[in-house]
Amino acid sequence: MNKNAVGIFDSGLGGLCALREAIRILPGEDIVYFGDSGRVPYGNRSFDAIKKYARQDINFLTGKNVKIILVACGTVSSVAIDYLKEISDIPILGVVETACEKAVETAKAKRNKNIGVIGTAATISKGAYKQYIAGLDPNCEVYSKACPLFVPLVENGHLNDDKITKMTAEYYLDGFRDLNLSSLILGCTHYPIIKNIISETVGTELIDVGLEAAHRLKRELTEKHLLNDAGGKGSLDIYISDEGINFKDIASNFLGLDINCKITQIDIDQY
Q1: CA-CA distance, 169 to 5, in Å (whole number)?
Q2: What whole-number distance in Å separates Cα of residue 158 and Cα of residue 14?
Q3: What is the 3-state secondary structure (H, E, C) of the chain?
Q4: Which tens digit of pLDDT belongs to each residue from 31-63?
Q5: Which listed CATH number (3.40.50.150, 3.30.1490.270, 1.20.1440.230, 3.40.50.1860) goes with 6-94+211-270?
Q6: Topology classification of domain 96-209
Q7: pLDDT digits (tens, 9 = 90+) for 5-16
Q8: Which residues are catalytic?
């Protein structure tokens, strides 16, 4: 048993989807969440900038004495996960692998090996989802699409009933309906927040990277004997890098996550 907290980070609101699932699946764990709201989105940054930001995020969480870190960011998981594992002394998990495993499993069950992936520009450019799927099953056909406007739309509160978001989804994804996909990987943790619109546009099964990653987080903690099984209810500490958005209200209202803890702003550049 290990009573140290679990660390989770993302560039902003998106990682709250993974946080919500982690709280549900691991109710006894203390969790420290960092949302880099001051530098969101990561997906249109250079690879070097993404690695720098991710290193600072890891350094901050490590300073909180966490026992494991979930990178609840599709961009960082695609671009910098190997780098983060090299520089960290604690286990680092991303969101790519488990989502790909779920997609291949779904493809086999449906006997349809057409898989879709949407993500930020950096995620799609890096091709991590496509490469990992090819390693699992080279017969799968992967169709990828960058959807860079989804993150700023979510961060600015344009959600499932928003006309602008619907128009943007149709612009990006209308052609995906004709591809006969077995599933579509939401390769950015912001995207499940607008999954209703995406589902209506594409018309296939969606794979939530945050949900799959939360399940993997539990498996890792169990296998490494790091679970806090003391029987109590875990605590939640949230940190952000900018107060420009009403983080607490948006998270509570639109993610169904009752946030009662204090939200603390930090200067992430110090890390």
Answers
A1: 37
A2: 13
A3: CCCCCEEEEECCCCHHHHHHHHHHHCCCCCEEEEECCCCCCCCCCCHHHHHHHHHHHHHHHHCCCCCEEEECCHHHHHHCHHHHHHHCCCCEECCHHHHHHHHHHHHHHHCCCEEEEEECHHHHHHCHHHHHHHHHCCCCEEEEEECCCHHHHHHCCCCCCCHHHHHHHHHHHHHHHHHCCCEEEECCCCHHHHHHHHHHHHCCCEEEHHHHHHHHHHHHHHHCCCCCCCCCCCCEEEEECCCCCCHHHHHHHHHCCCCCCCEEECCHHHC
A4: 999 999 899 899 989 999 999 999 999 999 999
A5: 3.40.50.1860
A6: Rossmann fold (3.40.50)
A7: 999 999 888 888
A8: 73, 188
Q: Global pTM?
A: 0.91
Task: Name the maximum alpha-carbon separation found in the chain.
Answer: 51
What residues does each domain of the chain span? 6-94+211-270, 96-209
